[in-house]
Design brief:
Radius of gyration: 23 Å
Pfam families: Glyco_hydro_32C, Glyco_hydro_32N
Keywords: Glycoprotein, Glycosidase, Hydrolase, Signal
Family: Belongs to the glycosyl hydrolase 32 family.
Shape: globular
GO biological process, one term: carbohydrate metabolic process
Protein name: Cell wall invertase
Amino acid sequence: MGTPQRVLLAPWALLAVVALQLAGASHVIHWSLEAEAAPPPSVPASIVSPLLKTGYHFQPPRNWINAPMYYKGWYHLFYQYNPKGAVWGNIVWAHSVSRDLINWIALEPAIYPSIPSDQFGCWSGSATLLPDGTPAITYTGISRSDINYQVQNVAFPKNASDPLLREWVKPAELNPIAVPEGGINATQFRDPTTAWYADGHWRMLVGGVRGGARGLAFVYRSRDFRRWRRARKPLHSAATGMWECPDFFPVSGAGLENGLDTSEAGPKYVLKNSLDLTRYDYYTVGSYDRRRDRYVPDDPAGDERRRRYDYGNFYASKTFYDPAKRRRVLLGWANESDSVPDDKAKGWAGIHAIPRKIWLDPSGKQLLQWPVEEVEKLRGKPVSVAGKVVKPGQHFEVTGLATYQADVEVSFEVSSLDRAEPFDAAYANDAQKLCGVKGADAKGGVGPFGLWVLASADLQEKTAVFFRVFKDGYGKPKVLMCTDPTKSSLSPDLYKPTFAGFVDTDISSGKITLRSLIDRSVVESFGAGGRTCILSRVYPSIAVGKDAHLYVFNNGEADIKVSHLTAWEMKKPLMNGA
């Protein structure tokens, strides 16, 4: 693996978006925050520019976030939040609600330290809908501050008839529901999953580690969702280091887009974990034996060839089943790529990726991801280009709209794959390193070709999202997708890593698609219909607001045809966190 992301803040990010399908919300409580101190003089003015704060990606009005999940008709988004500053600490479960996953209204915090088993912190967790319709939240509490002693707790709504679920209770006679006994490392025992029901028992997973190196998902069982016992063996384990924020869910058959409730039996299952060592999210597709509570990846190489949800800045993700649209939705968190002093000066840190619908691809080997359809409600003025050929070394600008906040869909067609470069097998497991060596400005055979986004008029600043095609030792095309932000900003001392993943697609016809969601300081891209996804944070100092430009470029030797491109200006949601 290439250089891991620099994580400035704690990783146990993802809590819960509990999408509640409850009717009749009558009013909303808004809450205010105290102003931060003036930014230190060492922080560049461009970094604290309000024009870099995202327009349509969810984030609170100030300070730091790192989480989401779903439950029934109103979408409830719970997330870890520090109401006192843009750094880790003072963490509560903040709470926002939405009808459409796009427009969010902030409520009062839902869960905060109040009992002995969470007196030093309320960390990540999940929500589950019980058979009688009552939601339950399971979460990690810190009961001792000297070693961050981690236990699992449960909370229930104080008034289940309240569609906004504004108050929660933590039964003293039940909590904690799980403690790190039997040799479990008490400092690495966290993040209970959404529970599922089978054969008279509820099951949930809790992430952990054994022997300091083997990550695993502990299985806990309960008949009544109140008293839990740990199974003798974990659901699955691998020599990967600590597993944070595990997620386990069924998927429909290959190529079927409809999602399944977590308790439904599926032909295939997905097990995802967030690796503490790398700060990336990995998953495998496999089979689940309900009788033995064991999971086996389909790929014989197992966790050695696990895939990633996103090959960029994306961590501590969580899925939920949306029964209203029969889909499974993925939510993830992206941290900042500047410094802690910068975050304090801005007064905010961290965003949520646009919610993504996910399903198993026709091969059954990987998940496909696509922005939820609701985001298209924000599309405004469109501009289209069709049938335009980009010669080697050439580029053209897409004009007629403001592109600092945009949605771009483009279909490319390569004239010939004959000039594709030989693939160096040394990079077979390290696309990110390959992209670092062969970035957007490195001339190639077939590619690099793609988009320059958030670019200045003189191209001093630009973030490249592109494809590059190689040929392996058998003459088969191998597609690399990259986001290269190395020239994204003239501001000093920024972390600007290249991100990349290989695209498992058939490009023998020469055709490939790209979609990029551009939002001031984030670029979220989907290659080949969502087979490879990359989210990157960038902080331009010139290409800001209406001074940001959009270009199509080709730095390869083969002609590239833009079969069709449409770019839309994106409006701000009516409400985005407060």
